[in-house]
């Protein structure tokens, strides 16, 4: 039964961090993947508060393989830049970092850039961190408006954040910012850890869900489909029943996939094939 188009499955490069950019792109083409959610981590791309890699070079390499970059994801978990930074200097550096991400996103022709709430210190009032996150995302939404980009806000796991970790947290942040250039990204791992369902998110956000990190899990782990306990057909059916037309970002982060990511991506795509229209 056709539940998705092939173009909706968006390969990611996080689990290729020990391989070259060219190897990753070749592997996506060989796996039958057409769309890319591009993670900006080194060694594949350089982004900082003052500069970023030549987008023309990256775009050429992607186009040469008949791939399309559909979502741009600045690294924001392993680096020092984050959306709720406490120190004024780091807050400003983070703002410039993500602003450059938005500009690079626009140069690359991608309509969407990923974002999250960031995190606050556990020994401070959570509301103070919440205010910083709201301020950052509000300012970035204005930059996104200027560049013709939409930001996609995802929830995180409690180990990653004490701010937006649930659908209700996401609703509060979205309501407080209330900006047309800030929409929603559903991460199935964070969703599963929170004990939520895809339908819970669609019930709240409806068509404001513009992207997903759509991976298997137990519920922890950003896993290849078939390595966790989520039901792929059920998840895809929920997407179809809610009229979802966006992408399914394959945010595979578990280190078990780092040694031979290309073979794991092929295995992952095989899981989707029975539900594709081609």
From TrEMBL:
<dbReference type="InterPro" id="IPR050312">
    <property type="entry name" value="IolE/XylAMocC-like"/>
</dbReference>
<feature type="domain" description="Xylose isomerase-like TIM barrel">
    <location>
        <begin position="26"/>
        <end position="262"/>
    </location>
</feature>
<protein>
    <submittedName>
        <fullName>Sugar phosphate isomerase/epimerase</fullName>
    </submittedName>
</protein>
<dbReference type="Pfam" id="PF01261">
    <property type="entry name" value="AP_endonuc_2"/>
</dbReference>
<dbReference type="GO" id="GO:0016853">
    <property type="term" value="F:isomerase activity"/>
</dbReference>
<keyword id="KW-0413">Isomerase</keyword>
<dbReference type="InterPro" id="IPR036237">
    <property type="entry name" value="Xyl_isomerase-like_sf"/>
</dbReference>
<dbReference type="InterPro" id="IPR013022">
    <property type="entry name" value="Xyl_isomerase-like_TIM-brl"/>
</dbReference>
């Amino acid at each position: 039964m056709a539940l998705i188009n092939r173009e909706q499955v968006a390969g990611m490069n996080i689990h290729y961090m020990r391989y070259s950019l060219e190897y990753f792109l070749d592997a996506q083409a060989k796996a039958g993947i057409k769309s890319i959610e591009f993670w900006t981590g080194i060694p594949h791309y350089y982004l900082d508060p003052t500069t970023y890699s030549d987008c023309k070079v990256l775009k050429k390499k992607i186009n040469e393989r008949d791939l399309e970059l559909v979502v741009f994801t600045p690294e924001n978990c392993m680096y020092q830049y984050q959306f709720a930074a406490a120190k004024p200097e780091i807050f400003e550096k983070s703002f410039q970092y993500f602003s450059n991400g938005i500009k690079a996103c626009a140069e690359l022709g991608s309509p969407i850039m990923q974002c999250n709430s960031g995190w606050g210190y556990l020994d401070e009032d959570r509301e103070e961190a919440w205010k910083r996150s709201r301020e950052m995302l509000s300012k970035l939404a204005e930059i996104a408006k200027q560049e013709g980009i939409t930001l996609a806000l995802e929830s995180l796991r409690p180990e990653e954040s004490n701010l937006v970790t649930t659908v209700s947290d996401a609703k509060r942040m979205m309501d407080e910012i209330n900006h047309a250039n800030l929409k929603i990204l559903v991460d199935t791992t964070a969703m599963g850890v929170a004990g939520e369902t895809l339908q819970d998110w669609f019930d709240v956000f409806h068509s404001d869900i513009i992207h997903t990190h759509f991976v298997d899990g137990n519920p922890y782990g950003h896993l290849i489909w078939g390595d966790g306990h989520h039901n792929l057909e059920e998840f895809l059916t929920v997407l179809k029943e809610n009229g979802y037309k966006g992408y399914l970002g394959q945010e595979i982060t578990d280190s078990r996939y780092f040694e031979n990511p290309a073979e794991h991506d092929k295995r992952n795509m095989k899981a989707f094939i029975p539900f594709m229209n081609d």
